[in-house]
Amino acid sequence: MALIAADGSRPPVWRLLYFWVLIGIVSGALLGWLAPATGAALQPLGEAFIALVKMVIPAVIFLTVVTGIAGSHGLGSLGRVALKAFAYFLFFSTLALFVGLIVAHLFQPGAGMHVDPATLDAAKVHGFEEKAHESSITGFLVAIIPTTLASAFTSGSILQILFVAVLFGIALTLVGEPARPVTDLLERLSLVVFRLVTIVMWAAPVGAFGAMAFTIGKYGVGTLLSLGKLVATFYFTSAFFVLVVLGIVAVLNGFSIIKLLRYLRAELLLVLGTSSSEAALPALIEKMEVAGADKEVVGVVVPTGYSFNLDGTNIYMTLAALFIAQATGVQLTLGEQLGLLAVAMLSSKGAAGVTGAGFITLAATLAIVPKVPLAGMALILGVDRFMSECRSLTNFIGNAVATLVVARWEGKLNREKLVRALDGKPEVLAATPLERDPD
Question: Which pLDDT score, from 0 to 100, does residue 225 have?
Answer without folding.
Answer: 65
